[in-house]
Design a protein that fits this description.
The structure holds three protein chains of three kinds. By secondary structure, chain A is mostly helical. Chain A is built from 15 helices and four strands. Chain A has one domain. In chain B, the strands form three sheets. In chain B, strands 7, 8, 11, 12, 13, 14, 15, 16, 17 and 18 form a ten-stranded mixed sheet that branches. Chain B contains 13 helices and 18 strands. By secondary structure, chain C is α+β, with helices and mostly antiparallel strands. Chain C has three domains: about 110 residues, no CATH class; about 90 residues; about 290 residues, ABC transporter involved in vitamin B12 uptake, BtuC. In chain C, about 65% of the residues lie in helices and about 10% in strands. Chain C has a five-stranded antiparallel sheet with strand order 4-3-2-1-5. Chain C has a two-stranded antiparallel ribbon with strand order 6-7. In chain C, α7 packs parallel to α9. The chains are: A mainly alpha, B alpha/beta, C alpha+beta. Chains B and C meet through α2, β11, α7 and α8 of B and α6, α11, α12, α17 and α22 of C.
Chain lengths: ~375, ~425, ~575
């Protein structure tokens, strides 16, 4: 009875959350401006960004919380996905750029007159979509194959992923790579024929992001309940025993690594049209660290934790840069230290912590009557 | 007594009410700069200059539109040297705070990332920092130095001093790349041969030069190889270095230059992104005689500048905005151009009689808005750029510049590449 | 026995304290000409300067040098006559200095006869522009040909040669016969050959060209190229020229090679100093300390504070944006300085080094006791917590010292360079290399010869067993972390000499230090040394070959990643029998 009410409560909460998530664009579209319930265009855009970050956080958590691999380079895949979509969006600007040329602005000021060959296929949306999956996946495949084959674990793996993202960041900052250099891609105008800056398009993008987030969440939840998920968590707990039991742990790890890279890339793909700019600084090591912090604050090892962490921390960041621009790094840093020290399970683990604290200081649960009956029976028989 | 109490009370209330009603209205303006991160070093001073301008305007009665006076209420946001955050903050300023105008941005990346936001929301941005040109947006007014107000006058000066070899070095992003490309073509036009332009050339598939000079990323610290290359380049004695390194990489570069024994007498370095503010962190005693070219120097000996500096000093003593550092301040060109921008906007609003962006833009494009700033008279032109004086200065041991040449009222022209290409083709 | 020593010391002391003014009070006609030159302009000024250049007077050198550095001022007396003066070094309590007339070296006096004192901002400096300075420089070079250090004599000769003014030829040839120092002789020979090159006689030209080729004169390549490209040049001259250019370019290749090796060593020593502390803390405790970069910044800022304490004093004030019951929170600190000058001020760096170590060690101790102590069994959480600490520390730096970079001046004994066969070695780089070696040696001694080091190694190998044997692991952790942070502080002191000091100083080095540590093998000092030097040298070599500073770095990073696939433990990994 108790268990049943728990699942139905959970179901109710889930339905409510999904409704709120999907209902926000409706509030944006149909409430008149100035009304209290109106969600402004700016807010829809901001929430869409938070949801993309939530997708990135899920990918970090799937690797860290479920497989025990702390990757300090997930932002690399996020940004690569963003770049693939960005290339398509740059082609969609057509001749409406600052220089009124059919090639992207940054190529014009670098002195190019024609489009380099590797840019041409990106005029097709489907090609760009495929590239969002293929390019980050390929990078993850190659890196992961070499890393897991040599049984690189723990801290070394983290440092290596950091080196990878740092090297990629340096590479993309170079203008000679013809990927926008320090400017990155910006000034997007159209996507699939729709004007990117119209509120309607932004709402649809928000809805797409929310649906992707929900889909990813359910898919990862399903995965963690299959046998694959069990092996994955076993790898996290004791990898050598998994090896002794006959499983090729490196294959499992590689699969998860590539999967997480693709998830992050999809998040990046949805991020770029909403934010309007992609730039190599998104690949910098500190961005990946931020993603890890979201997961830590939200609670790793769960799937709702990263979502809460990503949305919560980013909301806090937006608020503090406005309210206390001189102090926000201090606040954020102290917050992370406190979370790590006192909330090892994150926000999701807070109820559990309170419960444990309460039980320690004021045990109040009643012993159920059924437990004493056999003792009474025994006493009777004696 | 009681008979008179009620009318007395009413009179008091009316008086109080009228004073409250007479209290000035406010108008929000946005300040969008990096107050943290790598660019904070340069951009916090711009915020301070803007606060100074706003306080001055408010003290003088605010902006008069119609028959009301509006006090400026600044909304300051921190872009944190993070370009996507700049776009988000710009959106916030225009859509949430609904500011009438934004003063902001330093790097070209930040400007390019907020440009679409301003065009979409029809906002107004005043941009004060020297840049590479080749841009013209109807929503941006550039009080900044265009390439022909900074780079080419400096090169003219060096050519006149008899320099025959030019080494180009910069940070790897749009401003140095474009400026160096322009200067490369300019030098070729003036008869400098290809092997006397140092730093390396990169060509595209068809053999056309698309990048000239040596580039290092932001925050790069290791200049040993580059300085030894410059030393060899300058061994013949008539070389100079054109430096578009941006940000704090200038410090390790100049420390390496000083350590290698490259003196300004042998090989002067002209820097386009170094002003009095950045010189505070450099070993200026070893760098006497290096060059800079701006449209304002703190050492300008004009009555307007002296009065301005006096007012700035007293404002620094009295003000209590959070985060403003009071000691050892220097004033440089981007700060003055920010200050000028605030006054130019005020003049445009008062001429247009409204805060509406389209009307203000029309007023600015009428080429009648000008301001007698500390650097001289600055006038906004139809091409959204400014006409102002240009000065070339040499660094002194105390971190100031000594002005060696000045050009009066140079018209700011952003589009230079096409003209140079045509002239080169005709040669 | 002791008497000669005392006498020698006395002479030395006398020499050190000798008033520079004494050198100025002589040679009156020369001084009169000098004063005239300062006040005149244009062609007359140039003529006078040329004449002064031939005098060989030390006073002229001092005053001309001061002039080019804006140290000569013009005082307008009551009767409107302009008197060029120079200000003495010594400042009195009001910050004013005595003015010495250039004409006769005596102090400037007013009509009553009392000495006039000025602060340097009160007088108008004698104006110079680029052209005048180059003329002054040429005069100084002519004078420097026979005076001063060998390095300056050599460069003076080269500058005269490059001026292509044939009138310097007899002067240089004259000097050649008197010069003893081989380096300087070479320079003068180069200059003579250069001047002969500009002549017209083919035979002297070929002789000069051959000579330049033999001398490996790098600065003359351009002149050679332009000479043989001139129209009407004889074919033998062209052939000789090409030969000479080829041999000089060969020489340049070798100079670059050794230069690159030196640059690699110096970059490697910087990496080494930065990464050594991290190797120890990482190796000992297995925690990833993302605040290591901020320890470096603490050391650099400590150096800045010491520098200010030796000068005018140091102070800061911080206003928090919160209001505590309506009153703003405000705190600050002001420390008076000792206003040291001269050579005592230059020694500040020697005091700054131990201060940096101490400051960073204290900071590390504080962090360890408050935060890291609870995170030993959780290495990945320690990463997060230390990253939070690094953010907070960066903001604290910003609040206390300002968001701007602060200026740390190099002491004069670290400025400059020396050259061996055209390869130049900067003093500050040599100092870093030397000190890095000393630090490595000291750490090795600490770890192998002291009891603390023994305990540290034991805990590193097997913590639980060491604890069972009675080692107080908590205390060992604390001291080791403090030591590692102290080493980072030392790195900060060096980095303040070669780069800038700002709140984000740490961020620029953190990734590189991790790479170095992981490549070398965690916990191994030899490994860290090898990997630091290896990374430094490879980076510089790649920079030299690819021509771009960034490509080299990217290739090095990729190479490290690939190397770690092959040897996951790094170059020198600690072998243990445990499973992990």
């Amino acid at each position: 009875m108790f268990a049943q009410s728990k699942t139905s409560a959970k179901l109710a909460v889930t339905v409510l959350a999904v409704t709120v998530l999907l209902g926000l664009p409706a509030l944006n579209a149909w409430m008149p401006a100035g009304s209290f319930l109106r969600v402004s265009d700016f807010s829809i855009n901001l929430y869409g960004k938070y949801l993309c970050y939530a997708i990135l956080a899920i990918s970090v958590d799937l690797l860290w919380g479920y497989t025990g691999l702390l990757s300090l380079g997930q932002a690399l895949f996020f940004t690569l996905g963003g770049y693939m979509m960005g290339m398509h969006l740059m082609r969609m600007i057509g001749s409406l750029g600052q220089y009124h040329q059919p090639i992207p602005d940054f190529l014009v000021f670098l002195g190019w007159h024609n489009l380099p060959s590797f840019w041409r296929p990106f005029s097709s949306f489907w090609f760009a979509l495929q590239m969002v999956f293929i390019v980050p996946g390929l990078v993850a495949l190659v890196f992961g194959h070499f890393a897991f084959r040599s049984r690189i674990r723990g801290v070394y793996f983290s440092i290596l992923t950091q080196a990878l993202t740092y090297a990629a960041c340096l590479l993309f900052f170079r203008n000679s790579l013809l990927m926008g250099g320090n400017n990155g891609f910006t000034d997007f105008k159209f996507l699939l024929g729709q004007d990117l800056r119209a509120p309607a398009t932004q709402r649809w993008l928000y809805v797409a992001t929310a649906l992707t987030l929900i889909g990813t969440y359910w898919a990862c939840r399903w995965l963690s309940r299959t046998k694959f998920g069990l092996v994955q968590q076993a790898v996290r707990d004791r990898e050598d025993r998994v090896l002794f039991s006959g499983y090729a742990a490196s294959h499992y790890k590689l699969f998860v690594f590539v999967l997480c890279a693709v998830i992050a890339a999809v998040g990046g793909m949805l991020y770029v049209p909403q934010v309007g700019i992609i730039n190599p600084s998104e690949m910098a090591p500190d961005k990946s660290l931020e993603a890890v912090v979201w997961v830590a604050v939200g609670g790793r090892g769960t799937l709702i934790g990263p979502v809460i962490g990503a949305i919560g921390v980013n909301a806090l960041k937006s608020w503090t840069t406005r309210a206390f621009p001189d102090m926000w790094l201090l606040i954020l840093g102290t917050l992370f230290v406190l979370v790590t020290l006192f909330m090892p399970k994150g926000i999701v683990g807070l109820p559990g912590q309170f419960l444990a604290l309460r039980n320690r200081y004021a045990p109040r649960f009643k012993v159920p009557p059924a437990a004493t009956e056999p003792a009474q029976e025994l006493a009777k028989t004696k | 007594m009681k008979k008179h109490l009620l009318p007395l009370l009413a009179a008091c209330m009316a008086f109080a009410g009228s004073t409250i009603c007479k209290a000035a209205d406010t108008i929000k303006v946005g300040v969008l700069h990096s107050l943290s991160g790598t660019m904070a070093i340069s951009e916090t001073s711009l915020r301070d200059a803007l606060l100074f301008a706003f306080d001055e305007i408010n003290k003088a009665g605010g902006i008069k539109v119609g028959d009301k006076s509006y006090m400026i209420e600044p909304v300051i946001v921190d872009g944190a040297s993070n370009w996507p955050l700049f776009a988000e903050k710009a959106k916030q300023l225009l859509e949430e705070d609904k500011v009438a105008v934004v003063f902001g941005c330093w790097t070209s990346v930040s400007r390019k990332s907020v440009l679409p936001v301003f065009e979409k929301d029809n906002g107004l941005l005043f941009y004060p920092v020297q840049y590479e040109g080749e841009e013209l947006s109807k929503n941006i007014f550039y009080t900044a130095e265009a390439v022909n107000q900074q780079a080419t006058p400096a090169v003219d000066y060096l050519l006149a001093q008899g320099k025959k070899k030019f080494y180009l070095i910069g940070t790897d992003y749009v401003y140095p790349q474009t400026t160096n490309l322009i200067l490369y073509k300019y030098l070729l036009l003036h008869g400098i041969s290809l092997e006397n332009i140092g730093g390396g050339l990169r060509k595209d598939d068809s053999g056309k030069v698309i990048s000239a000079g040596k580039y290092t990323p932001f925050g790069h610290t290791d200049y040993q190889q580059i300085v030894s290359e410059i030393k060899q380049f300058a061994a013949s004695g008539d070389a100079c270095v054109i430096n578009t390194i941006n940000g704090d990489s200038n410090v390790p570069f100049f420390k390496e230059v000083a350590a290698a024994g490259l003196t300004p007498a042998d090989c002067p370095v002209v820097s386009f992104s170094l002003a009095e503010d950045e010189l505070r962190a450099l070993p200026t005693k070893d760098l006497v005689g290096e060059l800079g070219c701006w449209t304002y120097f703190m050492s300008l000996n004009t009555p307007e500048n002296k009065a301005f500096l006096g007012r700035w000093d007293s404002w620094l003593k009295e003000e209590n905005h959070p985060g403003v550092v009071k000691e050892k301040r220097a004033v440089d060109s981007p700060m003055v151009l920010s200050y000028d921008g605030a006054y130019l906007w005020k003049a445009a609003v008062e001429k247009a009689g409204s805060f509406d962006v389209d009307k203000v833009r029309e007023a600015l494009e009428s080429e009648t808005i000008y301001f007698d700033g500390p650097g001289g008279k600055i006038t906004i032109n139809k091409n959204h750029h400014a006409t102002k004086n240009v000065y070339i200065g040499e660094t002194r041991a105390n971190g100031q510049f000594k002005i060696v040449k000045s050009y009066d009222q140079v018209f700011g022209e952003p589009f230079l590449l096409k003209g140079l290409d045509e002239k080169l083709a005709a040669k | 026995m002791k008497l000669p020593l005392v006498l020698a010391l006395a002479v030395l002391l006398a020499g050190l304290t000798a008033n520079p003014g004494t050198a100025l009070a002589e040679a009156d006609p020369v001084r009169k000409k000098l004063a005239e030159a300062i006040l005149s302009e244009g062609g007359e000024q140039q003529q006078l300067l040329n004449e002064l250049a031939d005098t060989g007077s030390k006073a002229v050198v001092e005053i001309l040098t001061a002039w080019s550095r804006e140290g000569v001022f013009i005082f307008t007396s009551a009767d409107n006559s302009k008197i060029p003066v120079i200000l003495e070094e010594a400042e009195d309590s009001a910050g004013k200095r005595r003015a010495l007339r250039i004409e006769d070296g005596q102090a400037l006096r007013d009509s009553q006869g009392s000495e006039l004192r000025f602060a340097s901002s009160e007088l108008a400096p004698a104006d110079t522009d680029m052209r005048l300075r180059s003329v002054i420089q040429q005069a100084l070079d002519t004078l420097a040909l026979s005076m001063g250090a060998p390095d300056s004599r050599r460069s003076a000769a080269l500058k005269l040669g490059n001026s292509q003014k044939i009138r310097y030829l007899p002067l240089l040839q004259n000097r050649l016969s008197k010069e003893r120092n081989s380096e300087v002789r070479r320079g003068i020979e180069e200059a003579v050959a250069l001047l002969e090159l500009s002549g017209t006689d083919a035979r002297t030209q070929i002789e000069a060209i051959r000579h330049l080729g033999q001398l490996r004169a790098i600065g003359c390549v351009d002149n050679l190229k332009s000479t043989i490209a001139k129209k009407g040049c004889a074919p033998e001259v062209i052939a000789a020229g090409k030969e000479a250019i080829r041999s000089i370019e060969d020489h340049i290749w070798w100079v670059n090679f050794f230069g690159t090796i030196f640059h690699g060593l110096s970059l490697g020593s910087v990496l080494l100093v930065v990464a050594l502390g991290l190797a120890i803390t990482f190796g000992l405790m297995g925690i990833i300390n993302m605040a290591h970069g901020e320890m470096i910044a603490v050391g650099a800022y400590a150096c800045y504070v010491v520098q200010n304490l030796f000068a005018a004093g140091f102070g800061f004030s911080v206003t928090l944006p919160f209001n505590f019951f309506g009153r703003p929170l405000h705190f600050g600190l002001h420390l008076p300085g000792i206003n040291a000058t001269g050579w005592f001020y230059e020694t500040y760096f020697l005091f700054a080094i131990p201060m940096s170590f101490a400051a960073a060690a204290l900071a590390g101790l504080f962090i360890e006791r408050t935060v890291i102590r609870f995170l030993y069994r959780r290495p990945l959480e320690s990463l997060l917590a230390t990253w939070g600490i690094s953010l907070a520390m960066q903001q604290c730096f910003r609040m206390v010292f300002g968001a701007n970079n602060v200026q740390v001046n190099s002491p004069s004994w670290l400025l400059g360079h020396f050259t061996i066969n055209d390869v130049s070695f900067g003093y500050n780089r040599v100092f870093v290399i030397g000190f890095a070696a000393v630090i490595v040696l000291a750490t090795w001694l600490l770890l192998t010869k002291t009891s603390l080091g023994l305990l540290v190694r034991a805990v590193m190998q097997n913590r639980t067993m060491a604890s069972c044997l009675g080692v107080r692991t908590a205390r060992v952790n604390m001291l080791t972390f403090a030591f590692g942070s102290g080493l980072a502080g030392l790195a900060g002191a060096f980095l303040s000499q070669i780069g800038n000091v700002g709140p984000s100083l740490g961020q620029t080095y953190i990734v590189d230090s991790f790479m170095t540590v992981v490549l070398g093998g965690v916990g191994s000092i030899v490994g860290t040394v090898c990997s630091a030097v290896g990374i430094g040298t490879t980076d510089q070599v790649l920079q030299q070959t690819t021509g771009s500073p960034v490509t080299g770095k990217i290739i090095v990073l990729v190479a490290i990643i690939l190397f770690l696939q092959w040897k996951p433990g790094g170059l020198f990994s600690i072998r243990s029998r445990s499973l992990d």
